[in-house]
């Protein structure tokens, strides 16, 4: 499998792969958080992500199963993709921590643009209020490994 | 979603995310294609995808099918099970697996959040 610089996440040849992965997630924030359930099975959660402080972050309810799952292992992955029939796919993984005192602003995708419009403002405001009340927490994934694949890379 | 809604949802869609575990038990994933035909479920991924080696080692799998036409119309189904690779009768660029389903989880934002507010 080849991994050419410009053919991966659209970055420059020689760019730090972690930085390239973060930029890709910021541009494609409708992602899948991959984790392992208590019964040992892998699982995937469709979520909106944001990129902040060099990490991928998710907002979710403190009492949710995904929080328990990532806390148990302390590790998770994120899968982001382009659209289309033969998408460019990123799988990035690393340690995850649960942050209780981090807010979630009106921009749901942090440094990215465009996809913010996919989450209605009233929803984002509710999410922000849930963070303020402590019902929601932030999952912060620090990317240590990143892999891009696409059908074109396999040819 | 109800069971009939899940069956209709899966029957009408192919694109999925396939999740497996690496040698350390950490999750990994790729994109694939899911086929739900009555009670039989199967999926395939590119034969040279790194996930194929992981599935050979650990058959526990999750397939996620999701659609996101708008925030209030987000729907998805997560199918967990044991994946068994079909024998390859001839050269193929796809690896196909039969999935013995152990659990199905679904979500429908339209039901969770209620109908979308009227557009301005």
Quick structural gist:
The complex is a heterodimer of chains A (155) and B (120). Chain A has 155 residues and is α+β, with helices and mostly antiparallel strands. Chain A has helices at 17-27, 65-73, 121-133, 151-154; strands at residues 30-36, 42-52, 55-61, 75-81, 89-99, 136-141, 145-149.
How many discrete structural domains of chain B? 1
Assigned CATH class of chain B:
Mainly Beta
Spans of chain A of at least 5 consecutive residues whose pLDDT stays below 50 are: 1-7, 108-117
Any idea what the shape of chain A is?
Answer: globular
Topology, element by element:
The complex is a heterodimer of chains A (155) and B (120).
Chain A (H helix, E strand, L loop, with lengths): L16 H11 L2 E7 L5 E11 L2 E7 L3 H9 L1 E7 L7 E11 L21 H13 L2 E6 L3 E5 L1 H4 L1
Chain B lengths: L2 H9 L3 E7 L5 E11 L2 E7 L3 H8 L2 E8 L7 E11 L8 E15 H5 L7
3D architecture notes:
The complex is a heterodimer of chains A (155) and B (120). Chain A has 155 residues and is of the alpha+beta class. Chain A contains four helices and seven strands; from the N terminus they run αβββαββαββα. Chain A has a six-stranded antiparallel barrel with strand order 1-2-3-6-5-4. Chain A is globular, with a radius of gyration of 16 Å. Chain B is an alpha+beta fold and 120 residues long. Chain B has one domain: Pnp Oxidase, Chain A, CATH 2.30.110.10. Chain B has a six-stranded antiparallel barrel. The chains are: A alpha+beta (155), B alpha+beta (120). Chains A and B meet through β1, β2, β4 and β5 of A and β1, β2, β4 and β5 of B.
